[in-house]
Specification:
The chain has 745 residues and is α/β, with parallel strands linked by helices. 38% of the residues lie in helices and 16% in strands.
């Protein structure tokens, strides 16, 4: 799919995308296609901050050349006429109507739409709520440098092992490897980096700034609260965490079963956070925020999450066998053994509902029926978690809403025709004439979660909107010095979003405490210099293309329902390193397309990039070698060093983000023995110039005429006779040419 024009506001960027479309639509390699490739390259240089003044002149010249070509096409009645007319209109528009904008892009590196010159991050990093430099930790893991990989992760996420097991991995949804086969297994590579670092010693110690003397109270010890504590400690402040429960972790500890997240791994990540200047108070319930300020705290961060299940309205929901799914998981994780009978209905379609259903099986229930409003495609549960539940025997009933739990434990549901209205808001529509009846011993409700605001009874001034704490863009509540973040602000969400909130809130609290006046931490900055990245792993083209996504081994479904052992095994070191080789290194190849445009412009067309959303991606690892002549043009235009031409002895090869794409022999000078150029490059020149048959007339002004010299205007010198069919370097060519010319004269 070509880039979405509606997402682009800058006229120059829109013009570039349209020109690329015109260029792509040429079926043959014609001079006109090459001209449009050049235009695409010029506009790409401009929007990436590499525009030069001469580009304006070049655009005008190319436009005139295309106009001349269009006149010829009319004579030939060519099918390319519509393409040429479209292309000319695009160029004329930006050169006449958008010239001021074009000039400001080139001379001032300014875009009034704030659409160009932006920091270019790989899609996986953009999609990671924590903002981890994913390609960097992948390449370090692939090279066996696990500690270095973990240092990169810990910069933005203090729960590396936890997230390596439970994160639904939105980064993988954005991974451009899926344009070739399947996304890189980012989540599991992260787990391997954490595991192997623990095996070596322990997580690396973070850099902590000098102590500031500022104290911050953090209410809640879930992923948001502990992340805020960690990053505040790094800034030199003293974070003090207050937790009402006996143990730290919040929903990570009490809402996720051991078969998803073993307590040993959770405790490891939490212990590491505690080691770095975080003060902890468990079994301590805070009931008055104002008193915290009176007791010497400079700021307060509320991270209490959404620990209660949402109460679903249906007849009979007050009965004793209707239990909160969250309370059910909490009891299990506290070591209790709740009896729920043999037949259980779970209401809900998300990941929590799936965990509740699978935990119910491990509590000796025999039949688990999971009922939700959503149809199969609308279910919020991750595909992988739902698959594991179904393998264990959980039966899913889609598009049914709870209506009436009768006294005989017969539960009546009515059909849900649709969940959302035309505006996308939750507004389920039911068909009361279509009903479903299911028998149950227990109903476990896991359809949504809500906060616990009982600790705010004495702080009624805090603004609560639609059941959640209201904050501004800096995580501030309406009370001075009180900040909030995570599920208590957004509603129930994935752990990594709470981690993001904790980290960002910590930075905002630090700015507020220290009166810093900086740009907002997530503000996009210009990135015109393309900073150097960690070198790529060296992989041959076949391995880069054909290595399939790693698969985690799982316990047998029939056996695992009898225990709380992890369902999935982790990747081995070897598997993780092979998986790392699948990464396309989109941090180095920024998808600008310049390499492809220059290759098309000179008529080689060896580089074939795929358009994905708003950028290009290189996946054509094997057919490249059939056309590439190793001319080096792609390396010259690449702004990031993603393409490299490497010469070793008498061979030259092209590397694309570490992948060896081809290998060409270097020609030797037949006279002096020096290496001249790649063999295929020479053959291309030979073909284009027709050197085997062409003769060259000597221009009179090239030599000094003598009176006895014959009329050389009619003389020609055969290039074969000059070179004697030798392949020679430029220096030897000049010498040989001079010798032959001397003989001729």
């Amino acid at each position: 799919m070509l880039m979405n024009l509606e997402q682009k506001k800058c006229s120059i960027n829109i013009a570039r995308i349209k020109i690329i479309k015109v260029w792509k639509n040429f079926k043959q390699d014609t001079n006109e296609k090459r001209l449009f490739a050049k235009i695409a390259g010029i506009l790409t240089h401009i929007i990436y901050g590499m525009g030069k003044k001469h580009h304006l002149t070049e655009l005008r010249k190319i436009s005139n050349l295309i106009k001349i070509s269009l006149s010829d096409k009319y004579i030939d009645k060519s099918s390319e006429i519509p393409l040429l007319k479209t292309g000319i209109s695009i160029i004329e528009d930006i050169y006449t109507n958008q010239k001021d904008l074009l000039i400001s892009h080139i001379t001032e590196k300014k875009c009034k739409y704030n659409n160009c010159f932006k920091k270019i991050s790989p899609p996986c990093e953009k999609s990671c709520p924590a903002g981890i430099d994913i390609p960097a930790f992948i390449v370090q893991t692939g090279g066996g440098k696990f500690k270095h990989a973990l240092e990169i992760i810990l910069e933005n996420n203090p729960f590396p092992y936890v997230c390596g097991l439970i994160c639904p991995a939105p980064c993988e949804d954005s991974c451009l490897r899926k344009t070739l086969d399947k996304p890189v297994f980012i989540r599991s590579i992260k787990a391997v980096a954490a595991r192997e670092t623990i095996q070596e010693k322990c997580y690396p110690k973070p850099n902590i700034k000098s102590l500031t003397g500022k104290k911050v109270a953090i209410i809640g010890s879930g992923p948001g609260g502990l992340s805020a504590a960690f990053y505040l400690a790094k800034q030199g402040h003293l974070p003090v965490v207050f937790e009402a429960e006996k143990e730290l972790g919040g929903m990570l500890r009490y809402g996720i079963p051991d078969f998803r997240l073993p307590l040993k791994i959770l405790n490891n990540d939490i212990s590491w956070i505690k080691l770095h200047g975080v003060e902890i108070h468990t079994k301590t319930r805070i009931n008055n925020i104002k008193k915290l300020f009176n007791n010497g705290f400079n700021a307060v961060f509320l991270a209490t999450g959404t620990p209660f299940s949402n109460k679903i309205p249906f007849k009979g929901n007050e009965r004793s066998n209707v239990i909160s799914g969250i309370d059910f998981l909490r009891k299990i994780n506290k070591g209790e053994n709740p009896d729920i009978g043999k037949k259980v209905i779970v209401i809900g379609g998300g990941n929590v509902a799936v965990d509740v259903a699978m935990a119910a099986l491990r509590q000796n229930a025999l039949k688990i029926k999971m009922v939700c409003l959503e149809n199969k495609n609308e279910m919020p549960a991750s595909e992988n978690e739902l698959r594991t539940a179904i393998m264990e025997g959980v039966i899913v009933y889609n598009s049914w809403g709870p209506f009436y739990l009768k006294k005989n434990n017969l539960f009546e549901f009515i059909f849900c025709k649709k969940i959302f209205n035309d505006k996308g808001k939750f507004a389920p529509v039911f068909d009361n004439n279509k009903k479903l009846e299911l028998y149950c011993d227990t109903v476990l409700v896991a359809a949504g979660q809500i906060p616990d605001f009982s600790y705010l009874e004495n702080d009624t001034e805090i603004n609560i909107f639609k059941g959640l704490i209201k904050i501004n863009n800096s995580y501030k509540t309406n009370i001075n010095g009180v900040f909030a973040g995570g599920d208590v602000v957004t509603g129930p969400n994935i752990a990594v979003n709470a981690i993001k909130a904790g980290k960002e809130a910590a930075l905002e609290i630090d700015k507020w405490l220290m009166n810093k006046n900086k740009k907002k931490h997530n503000q996009t900055e210009k990135n015109l210099n393309f900073p150097e990245k960690i070198p790529c792993l060296k992989i041959n083209a076949l391995n880069r293309k054909n290595t399939k996504r790693a698969k985690l081994e799982e316990q047998n479904p029939k056996k695992r329902i009898n225990n709380y052992l992890p369902i999935e095994e982790e990747l081995s070191i070897n598997q993780a390193q092979k998986e790392a080789q699948r990464c396309l290194r989109c941090d180095i190849c920024i998808g600008c397309g310049l390499c492809q445009f220059i290759c098309s412009e000179i008529g080689i067309n060896a580089i074939n990039l795929t358009i994905c959303d708003d950028r290009f991606v290189f996946t054509d690892f094997t057919s490249f070698s059939n056309k590439c002549i190793s001319c080096g043009a792609c390396e010259k235009v690449c702004p990031t060093g993603a393409v490299k031409i490497i010469q070793k002895q008498n061979f030259i090869r092209t590397e694309f983000t570490g992948t060896f794409l081809n290998k060409n022999t270097m020609l030797e000078c037949d006279l002096c023995g020096k290496l001249i150029m790649p063999d295929l490059y020479y053959k291309n020149i030979e073909t284009r110039l027709d050197l085997k048959t062409k003769t060259f007339a000597i221009k009179p002004e090239a030599i000094e005429l003598k009176s006895e010299t014959p009329d050389i205007r009619k003389k020609t010198i055969d290039i074969k006779n000059l070179s004697e069919n030798l392949r020679v370097c430029p220096a030897c060519t000049r010498t040989k040419y001079a010798e032959n010319l001397k003989k001729f004269l």
